[in-house]
Specification:
Strand content: 15-25%
Strand order of the largest sheet: 3-2-1-9-4
Number of helices: 4
Number of domains: 1
Number of strands: 9
Length: 286
Amino acid sequence: MGAETNTGAAVAGALRRIIRACVLAALAGALATSWADPARLRQAFMEQVDRRLEPPPEEAQRYGSLALDELKRAGIAVEQSRYVVLVDRSASVQAIFIFWLAAGAAPVLVGASPVSTGRPGGFEYFETPLGVFEHSVANPDFRAEGSRNEFGIRGYGLRGMRVFDLGWQQARRLWGRGGTSTMRLQMHATDPDRLEERLGSVQSKGCIRIPASLNRLLDRLGVLDAGYLDAKAEGAAPWVLPADQTPIEGAGRYLIVVDSGRIKRPAWSPAPAVKAGIKASPAPVS
C-alpha cells in the first residue's frame, strides 16, 4: 500500500512538473511574440535606417495612444499582436512611427523617422488625408523605375524602391478654390540627391515620402505586408514581394495618418538643414 502511494505521488509530481514546464513554455512563447520581435525589429531599425528620430518616452506614449484611438474610431480591434505605422502630418512634426500593438498592452515604439507630406503648391497638390488606410493587394504596390522627370527629379527614388499604394482617397485640394477631390495615396522613397535631405518638412503633392533606408526595411521585413503574405500563403504570391524577403512575425496592414496640430516644433523632430540657396522643387513629383 505504501509503495503504491509513493508511486502515485511520484507520478502526480511528474505530471505537475510537466504541466508547469508547458505553462512556462507557453508564457515564454507569448512573451516572445509580444516583445522579442519588436526588440529585434528595433535593433534592425537602429542598424539599417540612416534617418532616425528619438522621441522621448512621453511622446512615444502620446503617439501610441493616437494610434489606438484612430483604430478604435475606425472600428478596428487590436485582437492580435501586430505592427502599425503612424504618420503625423503636422508641419511642425513631419514624422513616421512604427509601433508594435498587442491586445491589452501599451504600444511599443520600434522607431521613428522624418517624412514629407503634402504642401500648398501648384495644380494637383493635396493635403495628405487623415485616417486609417489598409495596405492591401486590392491596390497593388509597384517598384520605382528610377527615371527622372523634366526637372531631373526621381520622384519615387532609385530604381527598385517599393511604392506602397493605399488606393484612391478623398483629400483637400491645396490649389485653386480648394474643396476636395480624389488623389492616389502612396508612401514611397524620393530623390536621394535633391529631395531626401528635405524630409522633415512639407514637400510632397500629397503622398508620404520616407527615407530610402526605411523603405528598404519595410520592404525586406514585410512590416506592412500582412495582406500580401496572406495572398502568398494562398498561392497567389504578389510579384512585388522581394525574393529575399524575410517577413517578421506580426506583420501589419494599417497606415494611420494624424495631425497633432502642434504649432511649436519639438526638439526631437528638428527641421531639415537644407543647403543655402536651394529652393523648394517646382517639380510635379508625388
